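mind reviewing these tokens:
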Amino acid sequence: MSRKYKFGDNDKLYFISFAVVYWIDLFIRNEYKEVMLESWRFCQREKDLEIYGWCIMTSHVHMIVGSKGRALDKIIGEMKSYTSRSLRKAITQHSGESRREWMLWMMRRAGIKNGNNNDWQLWQQHNKPLEILNIEMFYQKLEYIHMNPVEAGFIEKAEDYIYSSARDFYGKKGLIELCYVV
């Protein structure tokens, strides 16, 4: 993890972003997005992760997160480690994955180049956590997260993107249980 960006106070909320190595468009398949969602649900139940906002794009993820007490760097590190292994398995076993060999080659290449890894890297090293300093910043980051798929041209209205917390803010049921700022 970059020394420039760190989780500080675990009583605060953080905006984080993390991307697949080389910005590979991994999350064009719903099966891979489901790996992320399952991991987040586990982290919510078992590791004290609080999720306030999120969006899975094709090559990266944005979230606003907090913790009920456990160190956020540990939660996010363990989540990224688990999803890396799970996504590697999913890519390898996906019978219809036409990009399998290329993606695995790129991820092995990234792992070999990074001294922190043995032979494999799915996620870029950093999370770039930014502490949410006030309610205005919270809503600015939340809007940024929710508008990402609109800006990318995937949908016209933020609430129509299923792999985002925007649905929860428009009266629709989202895929992840959220915590709310009051």
